[in-house]
């Protein structure tokens, strides 16, 4: 027969064991949730990086097409009147 002290010790040990089991299960669930969140954020980050690289390649391609299609020309006329105290007029057309 167990004494009251032994029964009390057994009950407290069982309570401590059940509390520790519950805490361990909660930690496992928290770790699973943390891993899922980490992988989701990693996938989102990878998509953002691929999107930025893709957009930069697309806009660079469009810029080079624009540069090849458009002709740049400029005419500069300089009129220098030496009798008028060295003033110079520059016109761009």
Any overview of this molecule?
The protein is rod-shaped. 71% of the residues lie in helices and 13% in strands. The chain has a two-stranded antiparallel ribbon. The model has no long low-confidence stretch (mean pLDDT 83). It has one domain (4-92). The chain has one helix at residues 4-69; strands at residues 76-81, 87-92. It has 93 residues and is of the alpha+beta class. It contains one helix and two strands, in the order H-E-E.
Task: Give a quick set of tags describing it.
alpha+beta; two-stranded antiparallel sheet; 1 helix
For the record, the count of structural domains works out to 1
Output the strand order for the largest sheet: 1-2
Question: Biggest sheet, open or closed, and with what strands and sense?
Answer: 2 strands, antiparallel
Secondary structure class reads alpha+beta
- CA-to-CA gap between the ends? 113 Å
Order of helices and strands: HEE
Strand content: 5-15%
Choose one word for the global shape: rod-shaped
Percent range for helical residues? over 70%
* Count of helix runs: 1
Overall radius of gyration: 40 Å
Segments where pLDDT lies below 50 for 5+ residues? none
How many strand segments? Answer: 2
